[in-house]
Amino acid sequence: MKKVVRLPLRFDSRKNESISLADLDDDTLMVMTRSGEECAFDVLVCRHQRMVLCVARKYLGDPLYAEDAAQNAFLDLYRHTQSYRPEGKLRAFLTKIVINQCRMTRRRMTSEAKTLLAFAAQSTMDTLDTPNAYTTEQQRLLDRAVCALRPKLREVVVLRYAAGFSYQEISETLGIRPGTVKSRIFSAIARLGASLEAYEK
Q1: Domains, the chain, ranges and CATH?
Q2: Distance, CA of 28 to CA of 130 (rounded, Å)
Q3: Are 162 and 120 in contact (CB under 8 A)?
Q4: At residue 194, what are phi and psi to the nearest 5 degrees?
Q5: What does pTM read for this prediction?
Q6: Which of 4, 34, 66, 186 has the fewest Cβ atoms nearer than 10 Å?
Q7: Structure confidence at residue 131 (pLDDT)
Q8: Whole-number average pLDDT of the chain
């Protein structure tokens, strides 16, 4: 049996009747959120989450990263409730936030890809008798950077890039949530990326 989701009602004293929050426009819901009525923001999320996810997926081409960008976009929108001007342009305002989040996520993806390539190069290098000197030095730098990570960050990096585990497999192995795995991966990649950039300079 399909579950029926009932949206909250708001009482309008002027008309002496109850109004479903789903019937209210975006600006009204934002003003209500600003006043502390968080259920109004839940309605906004339900109303726009499909569009937000669609934009993020098309921009990033990766469902996992797209979900992160979408979630961060709504968090950013919530932070802007106090400064938002109710001029009937919430959809455009939210879309701009989504694009900005996608840009930041794309940079994280690039850093992660660079680290993955470095690990892959190291695996290949281990099978060669005469590795390139530059590659050897780069790998030494990366090894030092990995060893310098906090244990919780180091273990997810090793499982992800050395063992080739998926986020779900890391989650099950370490007994932590997939969201925690992603968060630790992003933190570790930021630190490792900084080390690699320092070397390139």
Answers
A1: 9-105 (1.10.1740.10), 128-200 (1.10.10.10)
A2: 68
A3: no
A4: -65, -40
A5: 0.54
A6: 4
A7: 43
A8: 76
